[in-house]
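can u pls check wat happens w/ iron/sulfur cluster
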Amino acid sequence: MALDNGIYIPNLCALRDKPEPAAACRLCFVEVEGKEQPVTACTETVTEGMVVNTRGAKALKLARTGLELLIASHPVDCAYCPANRSCELQVMARHLGVKLKSKRFRKLLHELPIDDSNPLFIYNPNKCVLCGRCVWVCRERLGIGAFGFAHRGFERVVTTFGDEPMGKYDCPDCGECISVCPTGALAFKDGKGTKIKTGVESGSDDGKLQSA
Ligand code: SF4
Ligand code: SF4
Ligand code: FES
């Protein structure tokens, strides 16, 4: 509802046609009138007369911390990244007033090999934010299921079944996963193609929403 009304709420794991929110990224906090603590917007059911503030101080503080934790394990080399200027981390950082080079948390980076075995795209797992959009789109929207999550904790990664190179997998090269990826983790080799905008950039909205 917020995005449809031009009000941006930071988000990574949500997709408009995904019925069950994963609520994995913990970035979409909002404040709902009558509730003491912020809630995740993607899991909150809209009710009649509900008043939502997307710019409440408590909600923004939680979202900022979430983003800073995320970029503590993200290689921020935007100038050389295929997602530069279409990256949702950049949009979110601007919206929340967070520096992508923030040093609030100790940097702990993955050093995983980049997979360029597919003729169409490159997969850089070091830039994956584990939002799960590509996994869901490939499995649920397209019925293919080329990849999924493996391992736990810091080792958690998106990979193919059997951890085979992307190029070895029977992928129709539709590019859907690339279009929903919010970062430079999945990118077209020719630098073309579009990333969908799941949210609008913060503009002149006052962050207030009221349902009818
Ligand atoms: S994925 Fe986004 S934040 Fe990360 S390096 Fe690329 S443009 Fe920068
Ligand atoms: S590859 Fe992209 S879309 Fe897939 S989980 Fe990682 S960041 Fe999300
Ligand atoms: S979009 Fe709500 S938790 Fe990720």
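The CA atoms of residues 146 and 171 lie 7 Å apart.
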